[in-house]
Amino acid sequence: MNTTWIILGATSAMARAFARRLAAEGAGLLLAGRDMAELTLLAEDCRLRGARLAEPLTFDARDAGGFGALIARLETEEGELNAAVFAGSMPDQSLIDADPALIGGTVTDSFTGPAHFLQLLAPLQEARGGGTVVGVGSVAGDRGRIGNYVYGAAKAGFHTYLSGLRNRLTRAGGHVVTVKPGFVDTAMTWGLPGLFLVASPDAVAGDILRAVKKRRNTIYTPFFWRYIMLIICHIPEPIFKKMKI
Ligand SMILES: NC(=O)c1ccc[n+]([C@@H]2O[C@H](COP(=O)([O-])OP(=O)(O)OC[C@H]3O[C@@H](n4cnc5c(N)ncnc54)[C@H](OP(=O)(O)O)[C@@H]3O)[C@@H](O)[C@H]2O)c1
Cα(174) to centroid of ligand 1, in Å? Predict the structure, then answer.
């Protein structure tokens, strides 16, 4: 059976690594994002690696008017339809503190834009009796902290949305994998101070693909972040509110 993936935010370093792994398995890839020149190069690379189909498409999380065309394009592909969301943005928290107008865009990029798209896709997946959704959240969504609490709140919202979508799609034979990465070496973290245990995008992509095949519900990647976050989430609030981590 044909398998087609639409990858939202396909220019992200993690998404590129994920797309290359899917290409090697012969999947069909719709590579969606804002930078058409980069997406065209990525599509060429994926075709060379064995993708049955690799096509660049425009996706801007802040322009829901464009989502219908993507759904219509997906509809023309036979077989299983899957989606992976890598889109997201993390403006410096100090910039948001200075200009609260930045909150809307951050939440749209990391939560409501992708969720809007997935809501349009869900009936199609249900009608086909299956399909997988991968949603990339973040450990930042597990507990709000001073350094990135707006981004963290957007990711927490996305985690909750994915949990509900999993409930819904499970009933139709589908599946949703929530991915919570720790620090990953990508454009988003470039130059940020204080990072530790930084993972490579390819290692994260490998974890995601394994989670898809095993139909895992929620993964931390690398795995040890589950334990780091367990500790962080159990720090009593009177202590946590005075910490800067
Ligand atoms: N790096 C980390 O340590 C880390 C940790 C936890 C979670 N994450 C999450 O992992 C995902 C991938 O991020 P990354 O680390 O690979 O960083 P990245 O390279 O900056 O990727 C972010 C992606 O989001 C896209 N994007 C941003 N705003 C968008 C919009 N309005 N419409 C469509 N696409 C938009 C970017 O597209 P353009 O190329 O057009 O800008 C890019 O493809 C993100 O959701 C991020 O929050 C990252």
Answer: 25
Among 58, 186, 207, say which to mutate for ligand 1: greatest number of ligand atoms within 8 Å of CB.
Answer: 186
What's the pTM? 0.97
Checking if the pLDDT of 189 tops 90, the result is: no
The amino acid present at 195, given as its one-letter code, is L
What per-residue confidence (pLDDT) applies to 70?
98
User: What does the pLDDT look like over 59-81, one tens digit per residue?
Assistant: 999 999 999 999 999 999 999 99
Cα(187) to centroid(ligand 1), Å = 8
Q: Whole-angstrom Cα distance, residue 5 to residue 112? A: 20
Q: Report how far Cα 179 is from the mean position of its chain's Cα atoms.
A: 7
Of the candidates 171, 172, 159, 140, which has an alpha carbon nearest to the alpha carbon of residue 217? 159
Is residue 194's pLDDT more than 80?
no
Domains of the chain from N-terminus onward: 3-240 (3.40.50.720)
Residue 49: the pLDDT is 98
For ligand 1, which residues put their CB under 6 angstroms from it?
9, 11-14, 33-35, 59-62, 86-90, 109-110, 136, 138, 181, 183-184, 186-189
First to last CA, the chain: 47
Residue-by-residue DSSP string for 153-203: HHHHHHHHHHHHHHHHHHTTT-EEEEEEE--BSSGGGTT-TT--SPBPHHH
